[in-house]
Design a protein that fits this description.
By secondary structure, the protein is an alpha/beta fold. It is about 50% helix and about 15% strand. It has helices at about 15-25, 30-45, 55-70, 100, 105-110, 110-130, 145-150, 165-175, 180, 185-195, 215-230; strands at about 1-5, 30, 75, 85, 90, 140-145, 155-160, 205-210. The strands form 2 sheets. The protein has a 5-stranded parallel β-sheet with strand order 2-6-1-7-8, sandwiched between helices. Strands 3-4-5 form a 3-stranded antiparallel β-sheet. Helix 2 (about 30-45) packs across helix 3 and helix 3 packs parallel to helix 6. The longest helix is centred in the middle third of the chain and has 19 residues, at about 110-130. The structure holds cytidine-5'-monophosphate. Cytidine-5'-monophosphate binds near residues 105, 108, 144 and 146. Cytidine-5'-monophosphate binds near residues 32, 37, 144, 146 and 197.
């Protein structure tokens, strides 16, 4: 059983690399950022003012709690068909909107929200690491901001995937099909996120992979070798 935890800033290519890595080994894939995005989407849908100078943290915690405990939320951990649903409807695209990207740090910086999501993430990892319906080998790749340090500090493989800021912003802009996603300001989001999670430098025991000068397949090769070494 192999748990792979990958953290890093926005726009580094974490999601695409993590999905490809999980697919390669037949592992499950958990996008923890998608869970924070879904929580934010739900809060906006419930009419919570996330632009307020002092957002109503109690209401946010209560609202997010209901979202997860009352079964409104589901996430597919199949790396070839990743999706997030709310009451059975796909919200995979909606959670990538500029509206969600620009408010997600407000929600993810509230500690009781984090504690709730971290517990849910650990449960997914525990369940999937021992085998999943599509696996050839038992394992999971979890990616986010605190998977190597908080969610799964005992993971067999812990990676900090990083790249220079100009490279990351360019990738984000180039990656987007819509001006909405392109307008996602990764520097501002990283700055806000850095106040609550530590992903700009590697914690002890975490291997840094700087892919500023690597293309997608070179990055994937490096990660594949790291997982093979841990097997
Ligand atoms: O990975 P992604 O860019 O989709 O993450 C969206 C947001 O979710 C981040 O900007 C951050 O606010 C939050 N997040 C987090 N902890 C994680 C993963 C994501 O706080 N483990």
């Amino acid at each position: 059983m192999i748990r792979v935890a990958i953290d890093g800033p926005a726009g580094v290519g974490k999601s695409s690399t993590s999905k490809a890595l999980a697919t390669y080994f037949g592992f499950a894939y958990l996008d923890t950022g998608a869970m924070y995005r879904a929580a934010t989407w739900w809060c906006l849908n419930q009419g919570i003012d996330l632009d307020a100078e002092q957002p109503d943290a109690d209401r946010i915690v209560d609202t997010v709690g209901r979202f997860f405990t009352e079964d409104h939320f589901d996430i597919s951990v199949d790396p070839e068909h990743p999706d997030v649903t709310s009451d059975g409807e796909s919200i995979g695209e909606a959670i990538r909107s500029r509206e969600v990207s620009s408010h997600v740090s407000v929600v993810s910086s509230i500690m009781p929200v984090r504690n709730l999501l971290i517990a849910a993430q650990r449960a997914y990892i525990a369940r999937e690491a021992d085998g999943n319906s599509f696996s050839r080998g038992a394992g999971i790749v979890a990616e986010g901001r605190d998977t190597t340090t908080v969610v799964e500090p005992d993971a067999e493989v812990r990676i900090l995937l990083t790249a220079r800021e100009d490279v990351r912003q360019a990738r984000r802009t180039g990656q987007s099909n819509t001006s909405q996603v392109g307008a996602d300001n990764v520097a501002a989001r990283d700055k806000a996120d850095s106040k609550v999670t530590s992903f700009m430098s590697a914690a002890e025991g975490v291997t840094t992979v700087d892919n500023s000068d690597m293309d997608f397949s070179e990055t994937l090769d490096v990660l594949i070798r790291m997982v093979e070494d841990a097997m």
